C-alpha cells in the first residue's frame, strides 16, 4: 500500500509545483533567468492559474530586444486575459482561448526581410487564437527593410470574437464576428453574419497607404480617397471573395456609400486557398491586394484606377520567397 500512497502523493504534488512555477513573480523570474538576454516580460497579477491554465495580468509588458539587424517588438496592455486549452496541449498543439486585450499597444520594427521569416510559421492548426477580443488597440509598424523606411499606424482597434491561425495570420480579417480600426484618415470594418463575411475600407488615400505623405508626389490620384467593399464565403480550406474597389468622397465619419453613385465600381472576384497564404501578415496582405487587382474587371472608364493602383502596389511590393526577383 505504501507505493500507492507515494504515487497519489506525487500526482497531487505535480499540479502544486506547476502552480508555484507559473505564478506571476516566479514565472517572470524564470523568464529572466533563461531568456532574459533576448526578451523582457513583466506584469502584475497572478499569471497562470491551475488547473485550467487561465492567465490573468495587469500592466502587461513584453519586449523582444532586437539588435541592429534583428526585429524589435514591444507590446503592452492594461489587462490581459486568456486560457490555454489543455486538450490541444495533449495533442502537441497550442490553442489560446478567450484572449482579451485592454488598451494594447504593439510597436514592431521590421529589420529582417519578411520572406525569411515565413519558415518559422507553424503549420496550420498548430497554433490558434480563438475568440480574440481587442479593446482600443494601437499598432505601429516601422519597416526598415524598405527604402525609404515605411511607417504605418493603425489605431482605435476594436475586435470581437476573432479567430486566427498563426500559420496564416491574414485570416483574422476573415474570421472576426465584428471589428473596426482607423488607418490614416480612413477606416476599416470587418465582420461575419449568417455565413457571409465582409471587409469595408474607405477614407484612406494611396499616399497614406504608401507612406508618402511627406514626399513631393506629382500624381493627384495619390491624394484621392479609396473605397473597397468585399464579401466572402467558404470554409476552413479557403474563401470565395467578390466585391468592388475604387474612389469615394466618403470620410471616416460617414457610412460607406453604395456603388450606385459610381464613385467606386471596379468589380473583382477570386478564390482564396489558405495553403497559399502561409506567409507573414504583411506578405499575406500583399498577396491579398495582388489578388484583388488580378481579379479586377474594369471597363474603359475604370481601367485608369486599376493601372494606378497596380503602380502603387508594385512600388510597395516586397519579396515573397527566396530567389524571387
Can you tell me about this structure?
Helices cover 22% and strands 43% of the residues. It has helices at 2-22, 24-35, 86-90, 206-209, 281-294, 303-316; strands spanning 39-49, 54-64, 72-84, 94-102, 105-110, 127-143, 150-165, 176-183, 186-193, 196-205, 225-234, 238-247, 264-273. Helix 5 packs antiparallel against helix 6 (303-316). The protein is globular, with a radius of gyration of 23 Å.
Q: What would you call the shape?
A: globular
Low-confidence stretches: none
Query: What is the N-to-C order of secondary-structure elements (H for helix, E for strand)?
Result: HHEEEHEEEEEEEHEEEHH
Record field, number of beta strands = 13
Main β sheet profile: 13 strands, mixed
Our count of helices gives: 6
Give the CA-CA distance, first to last residue: 71 Å
Question: Proportion of β residues?
Answer: 35-45%
Radius of gyration: 23 Å
The secondary structure category is: alpha+beta
* Range of helix content: 10-25%
Q: Report the mean per-residue pLDDT as an integer.
A: 83
Keywords:
325 residues; alpha+beta; 13-stranded mixed beta sheet; 6 helices; globular
Fold blueprint:
Elements: H1 2-22, H2 24-35, E1 39-49, E2 54-64, E3 72-84, H3 86-90, E4 94-102, E5 105-110, E6 127-143, E7 150-165, E8 176-183, E9 186-193, E10 196-205, H4 206-209, E11 225-234, E12 238-247, E13 264-273, H5 281-294, H6 303-316
Parallel strand pairs: 4-6, 5-6
Antiparallel strand pairs: 1-2, 2-3, 3-4, 3-5, 6-7, 7-8, 8-9, 9-10, 10-11, 11-12, 12-13
Helix pairs in contact: 5-6
Amino acid at each position: 500500500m505504501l507505493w500507492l500512497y507515494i504515487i497519489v502523493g506525487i500526482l497531487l504534488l505535480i499540479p502544486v509545483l506547476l502552480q508555484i512555477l507559473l505564478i506571476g513573480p516566479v514565472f517572470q523570474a524564470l523568464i529572466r533567468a533563461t531568456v532574459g538576454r533576448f526578451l523582457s516580460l513583466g506584469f502584475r497579477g497572478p499569471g497562470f492559474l491551475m488547473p485550467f491554465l487561465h492567465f490573468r495580468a495587469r500592466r502587461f509588458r513584453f519586449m523582444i530586444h532586437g539588435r541592429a539587424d534583428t526585429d524589435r517588438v514591444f507590446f503592452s496592455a492594461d489587462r490581459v486575459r486568456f486560457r490555454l486549452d489543455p486538450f490541444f496541449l495533449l495533442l502537441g498543439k497550442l490553442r489560446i482561448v478567450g484572449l482579451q486585450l485592454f488598451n494594447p499597444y504593439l510597436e514592431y520594427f521590421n529589420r529582417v526581410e519578411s520572406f525569411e521569416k515565413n519558415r518559422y510559421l507553424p503549420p496550420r492548426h498548430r497554433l490558434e487564437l480563438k475568440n480574440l477580443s481587442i479593446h482600443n488597440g494601437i499598432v505601429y509598424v516601422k519597416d526598415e527593410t524598405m527604402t525609404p523606411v515605411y511607417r504605418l499606424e493603425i489605431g482605435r482597434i476594436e475586435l470581437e470574437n476573432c479567430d486566427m491561425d498563426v500559420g496564416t495570420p491574414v485570416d483574422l480579417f476573415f474570421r472576426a464576428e465584428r471589428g473596426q480600426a482607423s488607418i490614416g484618415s480612413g477606416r476599416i470594418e470587418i465582420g461575419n453574419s449568417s455565413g457571409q463575411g465582409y471587409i469595408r475600407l474607405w477614407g484612406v488615400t494611396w499616399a497614406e497607404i504608401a507612406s508618402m505623405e511627406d514626399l513631393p508626389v506629382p500624381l493627384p490620384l495619390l491624394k484621392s480617397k479609396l473605397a473597397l467593399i468585399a464579401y466572402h464565403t467558404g470554409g476552413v480550406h479557403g474563401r470565395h471573395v467578390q466585391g468592388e474597389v475604387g474612389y469615394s468622397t466618403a470620410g471616416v465619419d460617414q457610412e460607406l456609400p453604395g456603388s450606385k453613385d459610381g464613385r467606386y465600381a471596379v468589380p473583382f472576384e477570386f478564390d482564396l486557398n489558405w495553403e497559399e497564404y502561409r506567409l507573414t501578415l504583411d506578405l499575406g496582405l500583399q498577396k491579398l491586394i495582388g489578388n484583388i487587382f488580378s481579379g479586377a474587371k474594369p471597363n474603359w472608364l475604370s481601367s485608369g484606377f486599376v493601372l494606378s493602383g497596380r503602380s502603387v502596389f508594385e512600388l510597395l511590393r516586397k519579396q515573397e520567397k527566396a530567389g524571387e526577383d
